[in-house]
Amino acid sequence: MINIALTKGRLEKSTIKLLEASGIDCTELIDKGRKLIIEIDNKYRFVFAKAADVVTYVERGISDVGIVGKDTLMEMNRPVNEIAALPFGECKFALATIAGVNFYSGYGIKTIATKYPEVTKQFFENKNMPVDIIKIEGSVELAPLLDLADGIVDIVETGMTLKENGLVVAEYLADISARLISNPVSLKTKKAEIFDFCAKLTDPVV
Ligand code: PRP
């Protein structure tokens, strides 16, 4: 039995689509209702959790593997193995500002609103640029519009949210997609099962 943590919400549909394409019968995953743990074929035990918790379950070895966005992995920076990049959840980390504003002009310390304070801190540390980072839980695009921040660091997928709110990308930070991760111990003790599961999904990157 391999324990697999899946991310609820944004990545859920594409994850199930990929699992189905890999030959796993996903009827129970699709019709799961409010059920959080689903066993298939006495072979796979799936749990559904929020992205950050997927990483925690895998880090602690409760789940052998997990499917989660690279954005969450970059923000949490936990000791899990990233074993494959998956072909969905593609987006970018971007620094965005109100259209027509030059983010880098002026001498004052800039304020950045973000759901990703660690990624933001790293990005500006690499530039040797001190910034004031404000953690926001959602609808980050509001922050510059309401004068809470000079800019935001967020994920951009279609760009529609930025566009419809008069914001533009000032700089791209990184490419994001869904990743298959594993617990380092499980990778040794359940190597064959994990690689079999990984091979079903895509070509491993390491
Ligand atoms: C994400 C992200 C942006 C938006 C980008 O938010 O934080 O707001 O999606 O997508 P787009 O480029 O296709 O417009 P999400 O929908 O996860 O909700 P949230 O703002 O409540 O976190």
Describe the structure.
- The strands form 2 sheets. Strands 2-3-1-4-11-5 form a 6-stranded mixed β-sheet. A 5-stranded mixed β-sheet has the order 8-7-9-6-10.
- The protein has 2 domains: 2-89 and 177-202, Periplasmic binding protein-like II (D-Maltodextrin-Binding Protein, domain 2, 3-Layer(aba) Sandwich); 91-175, Periplasmic binding protein-like II (D-Maltodextrin-Binding Protein, domain 2), CATH 3.40.190.
- A hairpin with a 3-residue loop joins strand 2 (37-40) and strand 3.
- The protein is built from 9 helices and 11 strands.
- The longest helix has 11 residues, at 191-201.
- The two termini are 23 Å apart.
- The chain has helices spanning 12-21, 27-30, 51-59, 70-76, 117-126, 142-145, 160-164, 184-189, 191-201, and strands at 2-7, 37-40, 44-49, 65-69, 81-85, 91-98, 110-114, 131-135, 151-156, 167-176, 178-182.
- The model has no long low-confidence stretch (mean pLDDT 95).
- It is an alpha/beta fold and 206 residues long.
- It binds 1-O-pyrophosphono-5-O-phosphono-alpha-D-ribofuranose.
- 1-O-pyrophosphono-5-O-phosphono-alpha-D-ribofuranose binds at residues 10, 138-141, 154-161.
Tags for this model:
D-Maltodextrin-Binding Protein, domain 2; alpha/beta; 11 strands; 2 domains; five-stranded mixed beta sheet; binds 1-O-pyrophosphono-5-O-phosphono-alpha-D-ribofuranose; 206 residues
Short characterization:
The chain has 206 residues and is α/β, with parallel strands linked by helices.
Strands of the largest sheet, in order across it?
Answer: 2-3-1-4-11-5
How many strands? 11
Please indicate the count of domains.
2
Count of separate DSSP helical elements: 9
Structural class: alpha/beta
Report the principal-axis shape. Answer: elongated
